[in-house]
Amino acid sequence: MDFATLIQILDSSLRLATPLLLACLAGLFSERSGIFDIGLEAKMLISAFFSAAFAYTTGSVWLGLLAGILASMVFAGIHGLASITFRGNQLISGVALNFLASGMTVLIAQDWFQQGGRTPSLIGRARFEGIELPFAIGPSDAEAAGRPLSELLAEAGPLQLFYSELVSGHSVLVYVALLAVPASWWVLFRTRFGLRLRAVGENPAAVDTAGISVIGLRYSAMVIVGLLCGLAGAYLATGLQAGFVKDMTAGRGYIALAALIFAKWRPWHALGACLLFGLLQALALRTDVVEALFRFKLPVQFLDSLPYILTVVILAGFVGKAIPPRAGGEPYVKER
Amino acid sequence: MKDLAEAAGQSSGAPPAIELRGISKAFGPVQANKDISLSVARGAIHGIIGENGAGKSTLMSILFGFYKADKGEILINGAQTEIPDSQAAIAAGIGMVFQHFKLVENFTVLENVVLGAEEGALLRTTMSKARAHLTKIAEDYEMNVDPDAKIEEIGVGQQQRVEILKSLYRNAEILILDEPTGVLTPAEADHLFRILRGLRDEGKTIILITHKLREIMEVTDTVSVMRRGEMTATVRTAETSPEALAELMVGRKVLLRVDKKPATPGATVLKVDNLRVVDDDKVERLKGVSFEVRAGEILGIAGVAGNGQSELLEVLGGMMAGTGLVEINGQSIDLTGKRSNGRSRRKRGIAHVPEDRQREGLIMDFTAWENMVFGYQWDPGHNNGWLMDNAGIRAETAGKMERFDVRPPDPHLAAKNFSGGNQQKIVLAREIERNPDLLLVGQPTRGVDIGAIEFIHQRIVDLRDAGKAILLVSVELDEIMGLSDRIAVMFDGRIMGERLPGETSEGELGLLMAGVTNAQEAG
Amino acid sequence: MDVMPKWADVLLVPVISLILAMVISALVILGIGEDPWAALKLMVQGSFGSTYGWGYTLFYATNFIFTGLAFAVASHAAMFNIGAEGQATLGGLGVALVCLALPWPHWTLALPAAMAGGALFGAAWAFLPAWLAAKRGSHIVITTIMFNFIGAAVLNYMLVNAMRPEGSMDPASAKFPDGTNLPTLHEMLAVVGIPFAKSAPANVALLIALLACFLVWLLLWRTRFGFELRAYGKSESGAIYAGISPTKIIIVAMLISGGLSGLMAVNNVMGEAERLVLNSVEGAGFIGIAVALMGRNHPLGILISAILFGFLYQGGAELALWTTIPRELIVVIQGLVILFTGALDNMVRMPIERLFLWRRRSRQTAGE
Question: Which residues are within 8 A (CB) of B153 and not within 5 positions of it... i.e. 6 or more apart?
Fold first, then answer.
């Protein structure tokens, strides 16, 4: 495998890791506040649809992003209603919302665009384009030189190639996702809100008796979940791809959940886990590289399921123990 | 109300720190507090005493904003105050130390103290200031704790100090402690009382909730008695006696002694030698325990909760593994193998009334008849081949409920719908009517009403008189003294000594319970 | 204390939840510019109006009975088995391997073998999550979700790389031999002279599902193991006190659950498709959760709600056929039913409880 191929694969890993990372951080905030969320998938999907639909209709990807985030927040709100206010089963709520999102998106898409449950393809400003960082070789250079971009890149040195293809040229949401990691860490471990949020996921009674609203904290976690899943979904439909198609999240919500366990509920580790799972997804798309690398034909299905297998291994506790927040999944009822 | 005000020591004319007027609270069909009025002077330690379920904790939870009273008003320093939530209570200068601590286990002491009382949105500035402030309070009141220790790494006594520090950090003027000594050794309890007296001398008002008469007499200035949701009296501690308080608590003269003939012990039924237990956290809970129980006698195990008594019952009952020798009727028992479980113990003639009937002894959602065979469901007598003989079990249950006076005697009612005393009678009926050689019984009257206590004690004595061996574990010293034919005291996983009830005193047992081995000379 | 009488808990609360879900569904149909009343009529007509409709409704219901029972058995042992989807997928593989292994002469021979194959593979797929939960304390929800995905990958691999007939581009197994074809309701009812639509897929597996309902009821409420399983599900510490082994309960309950999920394949793979295709389970594993929730984890309730969901499926397919409403409407309704009967249960329950409490109070005061 040559250097250029490696860079290509890493580039594609980063793109594929982005929605995982955003959803994983969403799950992190949710579970740190004591609310299990197997409905990350639902929020990403509903956001993917609404962001694509609004981006297409208004011609502005930013309005699309806003609509996606709002839709995701509505779903997070329903999950909050079920699991916080009505103290229902959080797993069941997640399952229900996954169904609801899967059906609603197609239903509305069909009613709205009549294209068999998808949105029309997004072009121009209805999509997030790559940002060209200073000194990087990008499409504008290619245009100026009047040559194809691939040719320019082929002539570049390794450092320039690394910078131009891997660091530069991503859509703004990729950078937002990467910045969300230190931001999440800072919020969780350096602010009053973070202290309280971590406390409510461990022992809500301690928070309640300290005069802080358990319900308020958990709902604010839901808002963050809505925001991050909204970004993840919007990136899928308007960044990674150009439009919404049925069930386009394809289990990413669950992979994000797996990454969260893999990361043992810590932001920086979440970045590592998501990059690893992104790499696996990228490799599954380039089986030729895998074959060359291992001199052995690995079934693509094996690569596809590797994140799940790794998570089971982690859960089995053979590689360190994954201890979730103690109050996770339990609705808070004041003790008599 | 005149007596009350006098008792509260309101001679100076200053308003009481706390005044409650006509507080009522119902949970569904249960009336937990009925028209309660109370007045506590500033700078006093006021005790509230009553049996389990008398409504003490509910009343204090209302004061701390955990529940909203259905009726009544609260006055703090003479001003009427609404306390809709804990925040309002804290703002009104009330601090509460719950029976079950409200601490975040994997946070440090400092983080727990600061939680909810942070100064700004960022932790950096808050934390350094808080550290200084906390250190000062801890020094002022002689409550040393390491601010950077994690809660899960420190002992219960220390954890309780963190709870008190939490309140003081929030400038609490009124401190409520709910059953604070349940988990403490007598020495730790003494230290706590010293701290409380110090706080009182600084002008703080303290409310101590307990069901232990000894504590009330030792540390309080005034005391109120609660019974079945009502406040029955408020008096000066100096002007009352334990007997008078006990009578007020239960509403009639208490039989402190159980009516029983002297024991006639027979052959050794249970022999325990050098029994050791290590729990899941790798902590050694039993450190070489040895004793014997003979037929026709009751051996009482006294001790402060958490000194290995629970583990002793659990290992004998097959609920956890141990090492050492345990013999029943001269035959040794497997303590570690795969078949060492509750079922194999039952087959060897060991019946077990567990300490926690709601979590262990009963399945609360199961009916009375299902619970009546719980633990014995494998018995061929309850089965017809592959299927259980449900009709037969129901018929048998009706008889047992009648003989043990379980009310209501309805086999179809779920266990959760019986009162505490009647739940315990179901467990006893099941275990005693198996006619076991050895009965293990833990906290037989915890959360049981007075009438049922006498009945339960009588049944245990009857079983002894029928020539069975009984191992009794209780944290109630009165119960141990009243029921046992011999008393062994446990401390820190060891048996500190054995005494005969007629030849010892509560004082001597108390020293043993605190781990003082030369009690002979001290007593 | 029980505030409500039992009938309110078992009947009133789920029915009100169901009505709420239906009202919202109607609003959704209105929202996409269709007439909910006409849609309902079409659904009822399409699923119950002919023996053809019944044949499909009962075919779907059979699937849901198996997965609903699977969820319920695990649920009584306090195990949230969300992995019926994967277990049914593997069950399909087991059934297919059995059906393709021999030139079966007659279905009566093939059926027991296929049942064993399906149940065995389904149970095997539940074993590892169960073992990890019992021995390593791994969260059963997460592990079973992961096994759903791994199961899908296994099936994909088997169909693409191993079971695909030579020359076929379709990721599917070969057609099963004729000797494995199960009698449909048409053939069975013809024996007693009742006419039934010929092309409907309902088959003899329906009877196996009904038998499974009875056996699960017997197991849970009439056997020692059922007693122990339910006791463990209510209180682990109680079970340990009683000498019931948590490991045994968790593993056996999950094996039974996985086995029931795997048995579903007898209906959809052997009874209908007569070959193994990708995604043959089509979400029935998840619908089992809804079915069990609505049926209050009781076989009789599961039977009733499985038929209701069968109606939804068949009615929804008819809608998609005759109107412009996409088939995904079923998925929406399904989501709403799970949401209201499961997650938002307390929203309905709490006001009703208050009502009963108020009635009891006023009766008491009247009595005094």
Answer: none
